[in-house]
Design a protein that fits this description.
This protein has a single domain, classed as Metallo-beta-lactamase, Chain A (4-Layer Sandwich), CATH 3.60.15.10. It is built from 12 helices and 13 strands. The protein is an alpha/beta fold. It is 27% helix and 26% strand. The chain has a 7-stranded mixed β-sheet with strand order 4-1-2-3-5-6-7. Strands 8-9-10-11-12-13 form a 6-stranded mixed β-sheet, with no helix packed on it. It binds zinc ion. Zinc ion (ZN) is lined by residues 103, 105, 194-195, 216. It comes from Brevibacillus choshinensis. InterPro entries: MBL_superfamily_lactonases, Metallo-B-lactamas, RibonucZ/Hydroxyglut_hydro. Keywords: Hydrolase, Metal-binding, Zinc. Its cofactor is Zn(2+).
Length: 283
């Protein structure tokens, strides 16, 4: 079943280019954090991640969390939060039925507490990895506990507690996914590596065709097209460097044999361009 995807730019952090691509330069570039609105014709409105929001600044006011804001200086305005961008178009937060969380880094869960009634979906391994972590232990995981709703566990479905289905040949080398609605519209795939239990999402947009929201399994489209690992220093912050490499190679192979599939890394400048064009707001 086809859905409709809209991408939102929620702000950016500044980072050296060399971190994202081996051979990249020592120049500052903007890493935008993109979130997606998915309109399902039967089940309603869902989000893929929640990007940055001004809550990031509150959550990093004191040490040790303030180090996070020092390492990745964030630029986001209140009107860039997903909540504000939805409301601007007449959609209230209570209209969002559910949120698929790729992983728990602050630039993906920044707006989570703006949606107190939405159901949440993630892989159990992702949550178990950050659950109960505070202070430096949280910071090491890129996790800001203040961004989490206190009733997280009660509102969450751990999708890997259901049985995966085999994927079609077109999805190779990805072989299985969690078909959340049972209609093939939202296929959730484990993308471990960048963060423990990271997940991506396949969908078919009614106008743009097949899409794979791959979160941070690659930091740019150039990286998966050419199978380029980030700088070794950036690889040090990966939860699992071996899995990261394997999944980047899988993305590379997928992009090679399925060229019409749009693989969208959250922080890719080309994806940011799409927020201004093809996938921009169109409800
Ligand atoms: Zn991340």
């Amino acid at each position: 079943m086809n859905v409709r995807l809209t991408l939102f730019d929620t702000g950016f952090c500044r980072q050296w280019e060399m971190f994202s691509i081996k051979g990249g330069r020592l120049r500052n570039i903007a890493f935008h954090a993109i979130a997606g609105l998915i309109e399902h014709p039967v089940h309603g409105l869902f989000l893929f991640d929640t990007g940055y929001s001004p809550r990031f600044f509150e959550a990093t006011r004191s040490l040790p969390y303030a180090l996070y804001a020092k390492i990745t200086p964030v630029v986001t305005r209140p009107e860039q939060s997903v909540k504000a961008q939805l409301e601007e178009r007449g959609i209230q937060v209570e209209h969002i039925k559910g949120i698929f969380l790729s992983h728990f880094h602050a630039d993906h869960i920044g707006g989570l507490r703006d949606f107190p009634d939405s159901h949440l979906y993630c892989l159990s391994s992702a949550y178990e990895h950050v659950r109960g972590k505070f202070g430096l232990r949280a910071l090491r995981e890129g996790f800001l506990p203040d961004l989490m709703p206190h009733d997280f566990a009660e509102r969450t479905t751990f999708i890997d507690r259901s049985m995966p289905i085999p994927l079609s040949k077109a999805h190779e080398p990805f072989t299985e996914a969690y078909d959340y609605f049972g209609d093939g519209s939202i296929l959730l795939v484990e993308l471990n590596g960048h963060a423990t239990g990271q997940m991506g999402l396949f969908l078919r947009d009614q106008d743009q065709g097949d899409v794979f929201l791959c979160a941070d399994a690659a930091w740019s489209s150039e990286a998966y097209r050419n199978n380029l690992l980030p700088h070794p220093i950036a690889q040090l912050i990966m939860a699992d460097g071996t899995s990261y490499k394997e999944n980047l190679t899988r993305l590379h192979q997928l992009s090679a044999h399925w060229p019409s599939l749009k693989i969208l890394p959250t922080h890719c400048p080309e994806v940011w361009q799409m927020t201004q064009g093809a996938f921009a707001w169109r409800l």
